[in-house]
Design goal:
Elements (H helix, E strand, L loop, with lengths): L1 H17 L16 H12 L7 H32 L16 H8 L3 H41 L10 H14 L9 H29 L16 H18 L6 H5 L8 H31 L17 H37 L4 H4 L1 E4 L7 E4 H20 L3 H28 L7 H34 L8
Antiparallel strand pairs: 1-2
């Protein structure tokens, strides 16, 4: 091991100063990413199903606090992203050793117990996202069915239906897709995701503008949903939950290092990434402000939890069908992309612990005419199927989109967006304890922790409240 490590170090040191044409300092193919490509990746990753709950979140906080909190999250996300970008290389921002993933950066800068905590938070977050995507896709499939039912009956049929068959259908699709090797590496997947997310987000924004024009006035109030429409207690819990929904809309820290690993140098990757983050967070914030504010202006206190389910189901039903179909297509692929790291972790851990088990390690080659043989792994088949079934079952038991989104935002915001980037930055730059800079960073971290606790409490209270009126497997909408 020592000799191999020495050879690797010599290779690394030689490549830093005299690397072959077409290769980078770590011996990998030369990276070609720019500010523009990194910005596109970030915008694609950030603008997703989280945008659908922003009108509801704005309605809980009102015209003053709503936009202010969106801006606050954008500023914190941008600032902590620049701290995280500085941790891409160890010690030296130009020639230091690269970290290829978020977890590697944590291991290199903090190590020990913190790496395990980071892993648990990451995988818990990914598990939660799978549940959130199952709920969101079922809502969209139901919206398509109901809009066509309303259109066919000209509004005479209330078109009540149960979400369970749609969740089961989504789950079956995910079981099939989860058996495709390297599904998340398919080159066209990001393009499809980007097109779909912009399609439904833009339709939501456009319909919000049209609704405001139709109403002839801007709805809403300075302080948000009024006590009377909801109780005083509900007002407090919903305001906290809104923080979680907004935090979820900005969650992309987990993949920042991977995006940074596509950038060419010089200039240093951290400088390019800081510019890309500023550009992409700026564009995203503008888009979020428009979607959240126009949705609130259109519906006021009655802003729906999912923006696209609030425009009624009769006209223009075909446009809503396109938007909801785009959500389903996006989430089918996004579910797999988010779950792949969790799948890989479990499968590698199992293979390491039971290296002699054929059930875990053996691939059965199944010939497919005209294609390469398919490698069927029984452990992968069983474990991934159980995982999808479990996320589907939990979604059926707790089909509350806003509550789950708020909880996910709370779980991921402080640890992954704030705490680890701040601590890694302090460690890498050897910032003295109790210095002014150290104190400012710790105050930021503690303030964000309090937001996370409030958002989690509000979301859990929302789930408890919804469970009082919801009967699992039987309630119809």
């Amino acid at each position: 091991m020592g000799e191999k490590g020495a050879v690797k170090n010599r290779l690394h040191n030689n490549l830093v100063f005299d690397h072959p044409i077409g290769f980078d300092d770590d011996g990998r193919l030369k990276r070609t990413g720019t500010v523009w490509t990194a910005s596109a990746h970030i915008i694609t990753a950030v603008i997703g199903s989280g945008v659908l709950s922003l009108a509801w979140a704005t309605a809980q906080l009102g015209w003053i606090a709503g936009p202010a909190v969106i801006f606050l999250f954008s500023f914190v996300t941008y600032y902590t992203s620049t701290l995280l970008a500085a941790c891409y290389r160890c010690d030296d921002p130009v020639n230091g050793k690269r970290n290829y993933t978020y977890m590697e950066a944590v291991r290199a800068n903090l190590g020990g117990f913190e790496v395990k905590i980071c892993g648990w938070v990451q995988y818990l977050n990914l598990f939660g996202v799978a549940i959130g995507y199952t709920i969101a896709s079922s809502i969209s499939m139901m919206a398509i069915k109901r809009s066509n039912c309303f259109h066919a009956s000209r509004g005479k049929n209330p078109c009540h239906m149960n979400s369970n068959p749609y969740m089961i259908g989504f789950g079956i699709a995910e079981i099939i897709f989860s058996q495709i090797p390297d599904f998340d590496q398919l080159w066209w997947l990001s393009i499809v995701a980007a097109v779909m997310s912009f399609t439904y987000s833009t339709i939501g924004l456009g319909l919000g503008i049209a609704k405001v024009a139709e109403n002839g006035k801007i709805r809403g109030s300075l302080t948000g949903i009024s006590v009377g429409t909801v109780t005083q207690t509900q007002k407090i819990w919903r305001s906290f939950q809104a923080l979680g929904d907004m935090a979820f809309a900005y969650s992309y820290s987990l993949i920042l290092i991977e995006i940074q690993d596509t950038l060419k140098a010089p200039p240093s990757e951290s400088k390019t990434m800081s510019k890309a983050t500023l550009l992409s967070v700026g564009v995203t914030t503008l888009f979020y402000m428009l979607c959240g504010c126009m949705g609130y202006a259109a519906f006021g206190d009655l802003s729906p939890g999912n923006l696209l389910t609030g425009f009624g189901f009769y006209n223009p039903f075909w446009l809503l069908d396109i938007a909801n179909a785009a959500i389903v297509i996006h989430l089918v692929g996004a579910y797999q992309v988010y779950c792949q790291p969790l799948f890989a972790f479990i499968e590698k851990s199992a293979a390491k612990r039971f290296p002699d088990s054929e059930f875990i390690t053996k691939d059965i080659k199944i010939p497919i005419p005209g294609f390469r043989p398919y490698n069927l792994n029984l452990f992968r088949l069983v474990w991934r199927t159980i995982f999808v079934m479990l996320t589907t079952l939990i979604s059926m038991l707790l089909p509350f989109f806003n509550d789950i989104v708020g909880l996910l935002g709370a779980i991921g915001f402080w640890p992954l967006t704030v705490y680890f980037p701040v601590e890694m930055y302090i460690s890498q730059n050897k910032i003295a304890k109790w210095s002014t800079r150290w104190l400012c960073l710790q105050i930021l971290s503690i303030a964000c922790l309090s937001i996370t606790i409030a958002a989690a409490a509000g979301s859990i209270a929302g789930v408890i409240l919804d469970l009082k009126s919801y009967k699992p497997f039987s309630t119809a909408y």
